[in-house]
Amino acid sequence: MSASLPRTFKAAVLEKANLPVVIKDIELKKPGRGQVLVKVIACGVCHTDIFEQGGFLGDVFPRTPGHELVGDIVAISEDITRFTGGERVGGSWHGGHDNSCRSCARGQYQMCDNAQVNGVSFDGGYAEYVLLREEAVVRVPKEADPAQVAPLLCAGVTVFNSMRKMHVEQGNTVAVQGVGGLGHLAIQYANKMGYHTVAMSSGSSKKDFAHQLGAHAYIDTTKEDPVSKLKELGGAALIVATAPNPKAISPLVGGLQAGGKLVVLAPVGPVEFDTGVLINKGASVHGWPSGHALDSEEAIKFSQDHGVKCIIEKFPLSDAAKAMEHCSSGNVRFRAVLTM
Prior knowledge:
Largest sheet: 7 strands, mixed
CATH architecture of the largest domain: Alpha-Beta Complex
Shape: globular
CATH superfamily of the largest domain: Medium-chain alcohol dehydrogenases, catalytic domain
Low-confidence stretches: none
Order of helices and strands: EEEHEEEHEEEHHEHEHEHEHEHEHEHE
Distance between the termini: 21 Å
Number of strands: 17
Oligomer: single chain
Helix content: 25-40%
Mean pLDDT: 97
């Protein structure tokens, strides 16, 4: 490694389940085989980090979380061929794959049987430096704002990828349930992808904002039945469920048109569906797990080309515990980002 690199660096560490992160000095290690060392500029705070903090992702402690990171490569191992050093890159939920299973053979690397996750399988981006596996490194344009790009590496690519993988024809109706961290991106993507975009959320206070994001129609679920309103519009070809509310998600299949699809992006546990409705309409329910490196690069490119913006609130690394608490309590609109 370069003599200009420090011997230690600051990182926010989850030492045990259900405890806040603490800032610690960590020894800087040189990249191992297949790794690059990245000096982190920004890292998004994801709700999955809160699940990890609560122990729901297993006993991974101690661990530095973070899978929405952007930074510059400052060192590489001798076997690296894709990078030479100095490149602006990112690390996403997809942290590595074995390239030997059926999912990898199909190019679905983020669904690898032995998938690795940045910030879970190994230390992530809540730090001044991080080691990333070469096959999972995302190329990030130098001209892009790192703090804006960071949330696209999980929230952005999850929404973008799930919508395009559903193969809905342009001009059809796409409804987005929720106007939060995922939902405010989904509304923008749906509009820019050429869909008649319907936003659904509780309360009239979000109506104007939803229209500003690109929604052509807004359904206030506290005053109107979303299923009835969607039926009036001819039904939705796709409903993107972004808010973790099982009771709100369950009836949405009734608002699908024939052959319509409901894709659920927020983990909520068991949800009941009327299978009769699914059968009669030839409708279906889906989930989608983020994306691999190329998916993330394409999500970033699409966002740049079409002006999709993630609304963020910045926190210094020293306030990582505060950022996670704000995320957990729902006080962040819409994504928290740590800056180094």
